[in-house]
Amino acid sequence: MTEHRATSGPPSHRVAAVVYNPVKVDLAAVKAEIASAEKSAGWAPTLWFETTKDDPGQGPTAEALEAGAIMVIAAGGDGTVRAVAEAMYDSDASLALLPSGTGNLLARNLNLPLDDLASSARTAFAGLDRRIDLPLIDIRRDDQSISRHAYLVMAGLGLDATMLANTNDAAKDKVGWLAYVGALGGAMLDQNQLHLHYNVDGTGNRSVHAHTIIIGNCGSLPGNVLLLPDAAIDDEMFEMVLLRPRGLVGWVQITTKILWENGLLRRTEVGRKFMGLAKEVRALRYIKGREVVLRLERPHEIELDGDTFGSALALKIWIEPGALTVRVPVPGSPS
Fold it and tell me: Which CATH superfamily is domain 4-132+324-328 in?
């Protein structure tokens, strides 16, 4: 259930912190907008913490919380937002977003403005709190070590993880999501399928061969692509999709389903009625749940919110309902 509330406490006692990626943001512009919004809302002076290549945000966020920040503003790309949210799990502080970078996945799924720094700063200091779900994941490696992470939008094995692993970072920074096109072609030609066993909500083990598996907390991607149509950020569940194409025909079915049905038809009442007549395709299978345990026959690359996290041999994903509080605009306020 969606919950909105105002941040408590007298404004002059409220302290915010900005955790920023110096590579992704124009720091002078960010500081100017934060100072303006902070002054208008009557908050105390904002604290500033910089991320590094070795620490994308968890450490600076922990420092911000220890310093008394009741709101942490993530200024950077999806990796910065994910790292900040991971460190904020189990805290009472709110997360605000200053979208930057190429994806802005959480901001897209919250319908926040992506290119309006002033509006984002106003939302941080004068908006409302909204509780959303937070997926946690335990990744077991080939050496049997286990690492735990949080993510906000999607975890993927197969096509998207291979694509990301093959994408040149410099090209991504220069041309954004267009950098994935070349890597996408190579990943689609990859014949190495995932052989795995999975168990959703303790209903029993199932075996499957799939090209790609994506487990999402919400479903929108850049380019107005709705990959997971029934995923909701606050319904206490994830949506998992299995992509199982057989040759070119299978990829055509998947593309038609995602771009035509999910992206266009379901946006209108007439289109939704038409969708009711469409047949399900074997190449695409959707599953809803609260916890999934997945074991692979051999290690495969895994990605979380667009960043590669190495190879996984097994994983467990579960939803922590309402575990993260994010700042959203006041209904009816100008964006």
Answer: Probable inorganic polyphosphate/atp-NAD kinase; domain 1 (3.40.50.10330)
Torsion angle of C-alpha atoms 137, 140, 146, 148, degrees rounded to 10: -10
Mean pLDDT of the chain: 84
Report d(CA 136, CA 86) in Å as an integer.
Answer: 9
| C-alpha to C-alpha distance for 122 and 127, rounded to whole angstroms | 7
Residue 263's pLDDT is what?
55
Query: Exposed, middle or buried, 67 (CB in 10 Å: 0-12/13-18/19+)?
Result: exposed
Longest dimension (CA), the chain: 62
- Residues with Cβ within 8 Å of 77's Cβ and at least 6 positions away in sequence, in order, are 21, 24, 100, 101, 102, 103, 104
Q: What is the pTM of this model?
A: 0.84
pLDDT of residue 272: 46
Q: What pLDDT is attached to residue 193?
A: 80
